Amino acid sequence: MTPIIEVQELVKCYRGAATNAVDDISFNVEPGEFFTLLGPNGAGKTTTISILTTTLSPTSGTARIAGYDVSRNASEVRQNIGIIFQQPSLDFNLSAEENIRFHAILYGLFPFYPSFLTMPRAYRERVHELASMLGLENEMFKQVKKLSGGMRRKLEIIRSLLHKPRVLFLDEPTAGLDPASRRNLWEYLRNVRQKSGTTIFLTTHYLEEAEEADTICMINRGRILAYGSPQEVKGRLIEVYVLVDAADRSQLRSELLRLGLAFSETPLFKISLDGRGVQEIIKAIETPLTLVKTHIPTLEDAYLEIMEHA
Questions:
Q1: Torsions phi, psi of 200, nearest 5?
Q2: Which tens digits make up the pLDDT trace of 108-153?
Q3: Fewer CB atoms near the end CB (10 Å): N or C, the chain?
Q4: Is residue 151 within a helix (H) or strand (E), and if so which, with residue range?
């Protein structure tokens, strides 16, 4: 299967900068994949997504979206992508539908008509379809300034999906939203992806959002530090272990040595699993235990360790 996004040896150097903002990165994204770009502020995330969405030219290297080069075929690339920026890009004085209509006109999808009812049937049906899917049917003719933050985000999704893009770029899409709105937004995005097969390319500071990604790419100072599924990244970098303790700590220490289990005292007894199951280790220990706690690494653990050693 041909990747929907192909990035090869991409470099971006800003004039007067001592280092490259993006420094020779390469990766592919498969059709329908959920891909997440992670990194601290200044890591190169925004520069990368700006190049892929044709708003910034690369210094060298290549990037292709749906087979189109982002530098030579910018118009074709834009026809295949939707974008939701970190900062809202809606006109608050227009209605929700008017924001969508002007977007459709600017994209050349439909000719201009002065009202929703005079627009072509294909446009009206598409707007109804998306508004229904995102639960925004009753807000389409309200001014945007009267909508909640979560509703505005959903409106931006409708606008970005109007032309049926193959790739949806999300640049910190839940920034500024309350936890309930963030959860609801991701439910809608999962629904969109399931129904349309849209590829999602996400940048985010919320690591729990990246846990659901098919592939994550961690970058810092413009270079890729880790790449793979969340489980692969965590598995390569983070130790899985179990913490135990006992009233008779001397007896427990002696038994762990006799069993040949690698451990350290932190001051709890930290036993590395080394491929063993937690139940297997606990079953082998005869000393009565007062504490058993399994450490299963999170993506945040991996992220912090990777950035600490970058």
A1: -115, 125
A2: 889 989 999 999 999 999 999 889 878 899 999 999 999 988 889 8
A3: N
A4: helix 149-161
Q: CA 143 to CA 141: how far, in whole Å? A: 7
Q: Which of 55, 65, 84 is nearest to 168 (CA)?
A: 84
Count of CA atoms in the C-beta half-sphere (13 A) of 210: 30
**Is the CA virtual torsion 198, 204, 208, 213 positive or negative?**
positive
Residue 238 has pLDDT above 70, yes or no: no
Measured CA to CA, the distance from residue 175 to residue 204 in angstroms comes to 8
Considering the segment(s) 1-80+165-228 as one domain, its CATH architecture is 3-Layer(aba) Sandwich (3.40)
Q: Could you tell me the residue ranges of all domains in the chain?
A: 1-80+165-228, 91-163, 239-298
**239-250: per-residue pLDDT in tens?**
678 999 999 999
Beta bridge partners of 292: 244
pTM: 0.78
Give me the residue label for tokens 């950035």. 307
Question: What secondary structure letter does DSSP report for 288?
Answer: P
177 touches 90 (CB < 8 A): no
Please name the helix (run of DSSP H) or strand (run of DSSP E) that holds residue 9, with its range, or none: strand 5-12
Q: Are 165 and 82 in contact (CB under 8 A)?
A: yes
Is 226 a residue whose pLDDT tops 80?
yes
C-alpha radius of gyration, the chain, whole number: 25
Helix H or strand E encompassing 10: strand 5-12
* Residue 96 tokens, joined: 């929700």
Quote the CA–CA distance of 185 and 182 in Å, as a whole number: 5
- Helix, strand, or coil here: 140? coil
- 266, pLDDT greater than 90: no
CA distance 281 to 269: 13
